[in-house]
Amino acid sequence: MEIYAIRKLSKHRYEVESDEDSFVLSSRDLDELGLHPMEINEDEGGKPLQIAPQLAQRIREVLRLAAVRKCGELLKLQDYTEKRLRERLLHAGIPGDAADAAIQEMKDAHYLDDDRFAQTYIRYHLRDRSQERIRQDLRIRGVGEETAERAFAAVLRDEGENELREREKAQIRMLLTKRNFDPASDWNEQQKQKAYLFRKGYPMELIREVMKEAANETGMD
C-alpha cells in the first residue's frame, strides 16, 4: 500500500488517500497506527509513503471494525436494505471492501435482511399507500423485484387479497374526500381525479369502482 495524503477533515477525522482507495480514519486510529497528517507534492517530486504489508493489514482491519461499528449504530435506529446501508457506509468514508465485509457480517448475524425489511415496509405502509407505490418505494430503496414480490406474497398470506383490496379502496375514498370530489362533476374533472389517483399507483379498475360507488351513494346512478 502507498499513501499519498492524509488530510484533516475535522477535529478528529482525517481523509487518507492511498493507491487502493480513499477512506476516513479517526485521530485515535492514526495515532495507534503510527500515521501522521501529510501531503505529497508531486510537482516537487514528492514520494508516497510506503506502507509495509503488516501495517497495511492492520489498516484494513481498523477499517473493517469501523464499518461494523457504523453498521451497529445505523441498524440500532432502523432497518436498512443492503444497498442503503452500503451507501451510508461509503458516505461515512469507509472503503468498499470494508463496507462489503461488514455488511456480510451483519447478514450472517441476521441483523440485515432485505426480506424482513421489505415485509416490514409493506405492512407499515399498506395503510396509507397503494401496492404499486410501495413497490416503487422498495425499488428506490434497493430491494430487488424478486425480494419485493416474495415479501408481498408473505403479507398476502397473512392479510388476504380481499383485505388488501378494501384497504386500497378506503385510501382512494379518503383521497377523493380530501380533494373535494363531487360525483356530479363533469367528465373533465372526473378524468383529472382519475389521473391523480392513477399516478398514486392505484389500479384504474379500482378507481372507477370507488367513483361509481360514490355516485350510487348520491343517487346519481
Would you write up a description of this structure?
By secondary structure, the chain is α+β, with helices and mostly antiparallel strands. It is 62% helix and 10% strand. Strands 1, 2, 3, 4 and 5 form a five-stranded antiparallel sheet that branches. A hairpin with a 3-residue loop joins strand 2 and strand 3. The longest helix is centred in the N-terminal third of the chain and has 25 residues, at 53-77. It is elongated and about 85 Å long.
Write a concise keyword list for the protein shown above:
five-stranded antiparallel sheet, 10 helices, 5 strands, 10% strand, alpha+beta, 221 residues
- The average pLDDT value, as a whole number, equals 89
Query: Which structural class is indicated by helix and strand composition?
Result: alpha+beta
Order of helices and strands: EEEHEEHHHHHHHHH
Extract low-pLDDT stretches: none
Radius of gyration, in angstroms, nearest whole number: 27 Å
Q: Give the strand tally.
A: 5
